[in-house]
């Protein structure tokens, strides 16, 4: 069960309240330098990096929950299917495509999710859970969508597979979904996190699961509704609600939200490019909750709520912005709630 102290988050996302969630991230010039590879290999560095990232934001008093994320996102599930971890320049961690033909996936069957990477991820999470200061929420590796995992394992040819070998392609994604769900269960058990609770990278408790699904922008509305939504339904059945993150710029993505809404299994959408990139003239739709960033100047100059998008009460909404100092962050929080009260 979700902790009572997270009730305002639950009420927002379940439409029990029309309260907006507002988070302010404060840039910390003194935070330690790190790479994703370094944080993955050294859990103490991971803790120190996130503590530095959130140290100033924690003082502001917004709705942001400071956290430490034990993140093995790109390579974990793919490695369980046989991918090898690739350490890219700049400390990024991913995998290279290794499936040369979609027919190879027909005989892929994963009964045991334990391998070297999964065991490393478990040890990492156990260390983070045991050594993280109490003021930081410990959250496990964020999962990607079955489509995104399929694309990194098969490469761009997987999009052609969806057209030419749809049964094999969908079957492969169903296997990926099942393995992903098993890893989520394992991590939740380690940290004692309820099934219907996750912490998003914005520092918000969501009563369900958040999936990273950037690759969805490459599919047609019909494919999203007919193929992807049933797959997302697996996660909805398991975890209660689904938030889908998909970055878009420069790819066109206005077609995605409408298809997801028709599919009926996505509860909220989230990206880093602003809500305008989600919609094609239907910004005031209420089927999907929205997590969006805004320019802090729109808050400070009092014009944010001139946009009717932010005044609509019949849809879950979270707003995030950045500040250059704790003092500015506190001004933003005060000003935001003044504007919110005046407009709603």
Description:
The chain is built from twelve helices and twelve strands. It is an alpha/beta fold. Helix 6 (146-154) packs across helix 8 (166-191) and helix 7 (157-164) packs across helix 8 (166-191).
Summary keywords:
344 residues, alpha/beta, six-stranded parallel beta sheet, 13% strand, globular
Annotate the secondary structure layout.
Blueprint: H1 7-13, E1 21-26, H2 36-41, H3 43-54, E2 67-69, H4 73-80, E3 85-87, E4 93-95, H5 116-131, E5 137-139, H6 146-154, H7 157-164, H8 166-191, E6 198-199, E7 205-206, E8 209-212, H9 221-239, E9 242-245, H10 256-263, E10 268-270, E11 289-293, H11 296-300, E12 317-323, H12 326-343
Parallel strand pairs: 1-12, 2-5, 8-9, 9-10, 10-11, 11-12
Antiparallel strand pairs: 3-4, 6-7
